[in-house]
Amino acid sequence: MENKITKVSLKNGMKVLLKEVHTSPIISSWLWYRVGSRDEPTGKTGISHWTEHMQFKGTKKFPANILDKAISREGGRWNAATSRDATHYYETMPADKIDLALQLEADRMNNSHFNKKEVASERTVIISEREGHENEPVFRMTEAVQQTAFRVHPYHHEVIGDMVDLRTITRDDLYDHYRKYYVPNNAVLSVAGDFQTKTILKRIRELFEPIPRGKTPPRLSRPEAEQKGEVRVSVEGPGETTFIQVAYRFPNATHPDYFPLQVFDSLLCGASGLSSKTSRLYRALVDKKYAVEVSGWSEATIDPYLYRITMIKHPKRKPDEVLAALDAEIKKLQDVFATRDEIKRAVKQARAVFVYGNENITSQAFWMGYVEMFSSYEWYTTYLDNLAKVTPQDIQRVAQEYFQPASRVIGTYIPKGSEA
Predict the structure, then answer these.
(1) Domains of the chain, residue spans
(2) Cβ(291)–Cβ(313) under 8 Å?
């Protein structure tokens, strides 16, 4: 995998990352802003996600009703997303049409409309989205676990925000958020594909350098205190299925233990949230009918977050039986070294997921910007080497350190009328 990229900082502080990939006549452009749900104070939760929605409402140059048509007419696709740590916008276009995408992003960095009627309309859309989430048992359980795990840190709330804030955030709140964070010195542009670096960089300078630098935006810093014992929370709701989620404290993406924990995840559940029938938990819980399904999930984040194991309880089991079976498997990894062959297989699986997720041009451009949100491109280029360095001793150490009952939160979704 060729990892050579060009890094440039524009005069206004915007960072540009360029990677020539001449395998097909396509270019993917991603614009990242260092703002996500972790930057939202109480009373303004969900404002980053809502601001993202407003970026599709048009500018004087690119009115909303022509945006989709313009991109699709040129054979492109585009989208955006808000996460805990960042907000991004992307366009993947035929190589000779990428100028439209660059013009669009430069324009809406500085000229987006925040029309009051559009804000009111989007409030209805986002509240409806939130209500849809609340009908999902796993969302309700996950939110309860997250709110319990984080009492202080803004990872406390979901990206979509709390309903009370979605009802009260104003047009001026949204516009102020946009003006504060959507400045070039808070942005990273990552572009991969079939271009000549010198040519595209000249065009990027023409479009983006006239945009004035803003004040360095604030980022909230409220470290979470150490948890002093296991906490359990239950959520009741409709349905017939009992879900159980166990969340352990997980270090941020630049911590040295992040990589041993990725291999631990592959051993325990299968790499990257993918259920694997050869993983320890699948064999111990699903094969032995404690659970119908089990998966593990972690995220690469700026601050310490969570590693979550989510299980669908088998109808013939009690939640405590499922938890006991889970604890027994974790204890094995704490007490006995995993074999080198098993670790080799786990690393191979994690490696395959990583490589497969970086094959196309769109995903390569994604990774270039994504890692800049919490580290640097070197994190990406050394990822596989860091996985390969993981030893049985590393696995045992992180199992013992991070997977203790005293630092976990257990959430259970109990269907109404069920004895669970």
Answers:
(1) 6-208, 231-415
(2) yes
SS3 114: coil
What is the overall mean pLDDT for the chain?
94
Task: Examine the pLDDT at 274 and tell me if it is beyond 90.
Answer: no
* CA-wise closest residue to 326 among 276, 271, 269: 269
Q: Which amino acid is at 140?
A: R
Residue 125 reports pLDDT greater than 90: yes
State the CATH class of domain 6-208.
Answer: alpha beta
Confidence of residue 70 (pLDDT cuts 50, 70, 90): confident
Q: Would you give the distance in Å from CA 211 to the centre of its chain?
A: 28
pLDDT exceeds cutoff 70 at 148 = yes
Ranges assigned E (strand) in 262-375 = 291-297, 305-313
pLDDT band at 277 (very low <50, low <70, confident <90, very high): confident
Structure tokens at 37: 């749900």
Task: Calculate the alpha carbon distances from 6 to 19, 189, 210, 368 in Å.
Answer: 6, 12, 21, 11
> Helix or strand or coil: residue 284?
helix
Establish whether domains 6-208 and 231-415 are of one fold: yes
Strand spans (E) along 95-202: 187-193
* Residue type (1 letter), 60: K
- Residue 220: pLDDT band by 50, 70, 90 thresholds? confident
Residue 193, C-beta contacts closer than 8 angstroms, at least 6 positions apart = 19, 20, 21, 26, 27, 28, 95, 98, 361, 365
Q: What is the CATH number of domain 231-415?
A: 3.30.830.10
